[in-house]
TrEMBL record:
Superkingdom to which the source organism belongs: Bacteria
Similarity annotation: Belongs to the outer membrane factor (OMF) (TC 1.B.17) family.
GO MF assignments: efflux transmembrane transporter activity
Pfam family, one: OEP
SUPFAM superfamilies named among the record's database cross-references: Outer membrane efflux proteins (OEP)
Protein name: Outer membrane efflux protein
PROSITE patterns attached to this UniProt entry: PROKAR_LIPOPROTEIN
Length: 483
C-alpha cells in the first residue's frame, strides 16, 4: 500500500496564523444617536460660571470673572461657546482624517484554496496566492497633496468662522448700544414735546395761538411716543440677537452686567486716522493677502492642481504582483505573476478633463473673489470717509445748537424769554444730539465694515505697511487647529 504525500504542517500553521493576524486590531462600532432635544440641553448648559470657561478666562489674562461685560469679554464667550466653531473644528477633523486615508497604501490580498482529486494516490490539492498592488506614477503623493491642501482650507475655515463671528458680534453690539442711546434721547424728546403740548394748550385756551399749531405739536408728540415704543421693542430683539451671537441662552445672557457704550473706546483712534493711509495701495495689497478667504482660495486651487496631477497619474496602470504556492501530486509549485490594466478603451480622459475644468473653475473663482474683495474694500473706505465727514458736520451743528440753547437759558433766567421758547430750544438741542449720535454710530458701523473688508482691526493697519510679511489672524481656535 502506497503512502499518500501530504503538504508539510508548516504551511498550514502559517495560513492559520495569517488568518488570525488579519482579525486583530479592528475598531468596534459604537452608536451615538442624535436626538433633537440634546441640542436644547447643550445650549442651556452654556454658562459663564462654568469651570472650563473660567479657566479659559484665566488663560486670556482675567484673574476672575469680569464684573462688567463689554464686547471684548463677550467675544471670549463667543470663542468658547458658539456652536459654529464646533462645526468648523469637526470639518477640520474630517479633513485631517482624509490625509490619513490618502497616506494609506492599498492592502494586499490573499487567496487560499483546497480540493480533492479522484485519484486515490494524491487526493488533496492546495493553493495559496497573494496579490500585492503597487501604485505607480506618484498617485499616493498626489492624493496626499490634495488632502493636505483641503485640510489647510478647513483650518483656514476656522479662522474665517472666527472672524465672521467677531464681525457679527461687533455689529450687534454697536446696534445694541445705539438703540440704548437712542432710547434715552427719545424719552427726553417725548418729555419735552409733552411739556410743549401742555403750554400750547394753555395758549390756545387763552386765544394766543391757532389750533393748527397745537395739532402739529400733538402730531409730533405722538410720533415720538410711537418711536419710543418701537425702540423699546427693538432693544429686546437686539438683545436676543446679541445673546445668539455670544452663544449663550437668553436667560443666562440677561444675567450679565453689560458695560454699555464701551464701543466708543474702540473707535477713539479711528476718527483720527489719516484717510490717505486707508487708500494707500500698499495697505490694500497687504490687507488683501491677510484675508482668510483669499488664503483658503489659494489652498483650494492647490488642491485642484493636486487632483489634476492625480488623474493624469491614473493614466498609468498600477502593477499587481501575484506570488503563489501550489501543492499538487506531491509537488511544491512556486510561481510569480504580474498583472496590470490595459488602457485600451480609454486613458482616463474624462476624469482628467473634469480635473482641468475644476482647476479652471477654482482659478476663476479666486480671481472673482479678489475682485469682490477689492470692490468691497473701496466701497467700505468710501462709506467710512463719508461717515466721518457727516459726523463732523453733525458735530458742528450740535455745537451751534448747544450754544443757542445756552443763550436761551440765560435769556429765560433774566426774564427775556418764556418757558415755551426755552423748551423749544431744548427740544432742538435734543434733536441735534440725536443726529450727532446717529452720525457717531454710523461711523462705528462704517469702521466695522471697513475692518471686515480687510479682516483686520483698524488699529493694526500700520502693521501691514511696516512689515513685509503677511500678518496672521490670532485667535485661540486657529492656533489650536494649527497645532
Amino acid at each position: 500500500m502506497k503512502t499518500i504525500k501530504r503538504p508539510p504542517g508548516l504551511w498550514t500553521t502559517i495560513t492559520l496564523c495569517s488568518l488570525l493576524a488579519t482579525g486583530c486590531g479592528y475598531q468596534q462600532y459604537q452608536a451615538h444617536p442624535l436626538v433633537a432635544a440634546h441640542g436644547h440641553v447643550s445650549l442651556r448648559a452654556h454658562d459663564t460660571g462654568d469651570s472650563g470657561f473660567l479657566a479659559y478666562l484665566h488663560e486670556e489674562g482675567y484673574d476672575s470673572r469680569p464684573e462688567q461685560w463689554g464686547w471684548q469679554e463677550l467675544m471670549l464667550c463667543t470663542l468658547y461657546f458658539h456652536p459654529d466653531l464646533d462645526v468648523a473644528r469637526a470639518q477640520l477633523s474630517r479633513a485631517i482624517a482624509a490625509i490619513t486615508t490618502a497616506e494609506q497604501r492599498p492592502n494586499p490580498s490573499v487567496s487560499i484554496a483546497a480540493g480533492r482529486r479522484n485519484e486515490p494516490e494524491v487526493p488533496e490539492v492546495y493553493s495559496l496566492r497573494f496579490n500585492i498592488p503597487i501604485e505607480t506614477a506618484g498617485k499616493r503623493q498626489a492624493r496626499i497633496d490634495m488632502a493636505s491642501n483641503l485640510s489647510e482650507s478647513a483650518r483656514l475655515n476656522i479662522a474665517q468662522t472666527t472672524w465672521n463671528l467677531r464681525y457679527r458680534l461687533l455689529s450687534s453690539w454697536i446696534e445694541f448700544n445705539a438703540a440704548h442711546q437712542n432710547l434715552t434721547m427719545l424719552k427726553e424728546e417725548v418729555q419735552l414735546r409733552s411739556e410743549i403740548v401742555s403750554m400750547l394748550t394753555l395758549r390756545l385756551q387763552a386765544g394766543m395761538i391757532s389750533s393748527v399749531e397745537l395739532s402739529n405739536a400733538k402730531l409730533q408728540w405722538q410720533k415720538s411716543q410711537q418711536a419710543l415704543v418701537e425702540e423699546q421693542g427693538r432693544i429686546d430683539e437686539l438683545k436676543t440677537q446679541l445673546a445668539s451671537n455670544v452663544g449663550l441662552p437668553l436667560d443666562k445672557f440677561e444675567q450679565l452686567p453689560l458695560q454699555l457704550h464701551a464701543t466708543s473706546q474702540l473707535f477713539e483712534m479711528q476718527r483720527d486716522l489719516d484717510i490717505a493711509n486707508l487708500i494707500d495701495t500698499t495697505a490694500q495689497d497687504a490687507a488683501l493677502l491677510n484675508r482668510v478667504d483669499i488664503r483658503a482660495g489659494l489652498a483650494a486651487y492647490a488642491a485642484s492642481e493636486a487632483r489634476l496631477r492625480l488623474e493624469i497619474a491614473r493614466q498609468y496602470p498600477d502593477i499587481h504582483l501575484g506570488p503563489s504556492y501550489n501543492y499538487e501530486e506531491g509537488f511544491h509549485i512556486w510561481s510569480l505573476g504580474i498583472t496590470s490594466l490595459l488602457n485600451v478603451l480609454h486613458r482616463n480622459q474624462g476624469l482628467i478633463a473634469e480635473a482641468k475644468a475644476l482647476r479652471e473653475t477654482e482659478a476663476a473663482q479666486f480671481e472673482a473673489l479678489q475682485a469682490r474683495v477689492i470692490a468691497t474694500m473701496d466701497s467700505a473706505r468710501s462709506r467710512y470717509r463719508s461717515a466721518l465727514l457727516a459726523l463732523e458736520q453733525a458735530r458742528s451743528l450740535y455745537d451751534t445748537q448747544r450754544t443757542q440753547t445756552e443763550q436761551a437759558r440765560l435769556r429765560f433766567e433774566h426774564g427775556f424769554a418764556d418757558r415755551l421758547e426755552l423748551s423749544t430750544y431744548q427740544l432742538e438741542n435734543v434733536l441735534a444730539r440725536q443726529r450727532f449720535l446717529a452720525a457717531e454710530y454710523q461711523v462705528q458701523r462704517a469702521a466695522a465694515a471697513l475692518e471686515d473688508s480687510m479682516q483686520l482691526p483698524l488699529e493694526n493697519l500700520d502693521s501691514l505697511t511696516s512689515s513685509s510679511r503677511r500678518p496672521a489672524l490670532h485667535h485661540p481656535f486657529a492656533e489650536e487647529a494649527a497645532s
